[in-house]
């Protein structure tokens, strides 16, 4: 993948990646069983991209408007350090996270898919969206994935950051050994 210089510079500064869940880590669909239990589907390649970031020393977090035990379980499986759920107004959680991590906004990437993500997309150093995100947010992002939410968008963002930081070859070398 060839990156434009501005995108490369933005990705090279990232120390924390924050993600929305519905429409980013999932395909934006909710399923309910007859018993009222909610089901979601997570794409394992997205999860592996998150693991690769963490192994490369880049922290991860989620800020999502909905609350779900499934999300808690998946984030625990992936060892995601910062988890904010049930947050309809995401900006206060983002500001709390910035203070907790001691980071500047330009050191943070955020991937969101809808207008409620605009306050964060407008503040971070690298704003991203899945291919099937709400079209009206496209003017406010630096990177639009070629993949839809819940089907590789997060993985593409993870790889972009690792490549910009010169860490991708180490990832590949590990698996080629």
Please outline the helices and strands:
Elements (H helix, E strand, L loop, with lengths): L4 H8 L3 E4 L11 E2 L5 E2 L4 H12 L3 E5 L5 H9 L4 E3 L5 H12 L6 E4 L6 H4 L4 E4 L13 E2 L8 H12 L3 H9 L1
Parallel strand pairs: 1-4, 1-6, 4-5, 6-7, 7-8
Antiparallel strand pairs: 2-3
Short structural description:
Substrate binds at residue 22. The chain has 177 residues and is an alpha/beta fold.
Structural features, described:
With 177 residues, the protein is α/β, with parallel strands linked by helices. It has one domain (5-176): 3-Layer(aba) Sandwich (Rossmann fold), CATH 3.40.50. The protein has helices spanning 5-12, 44-55, 69-77, 90-101, 118-121, 153-164, 168-176, and strands spanning 16-19, 31-32, 38-39, 59-63, 82-84, 108-111, 126-129, 143-144. Helix 2 runs parallel beside helix 6. The two termini are 23 Å apart.
Descriptive labels:
HAD_sf; globular; EC 3.1.3.45; single chain; two-stranded antiparallel ribbon; six-stranded parallel sheet; Rossmann fold; hydrolase; lipopolysaccharide biosynthesis; alpha/beta; 7 helices
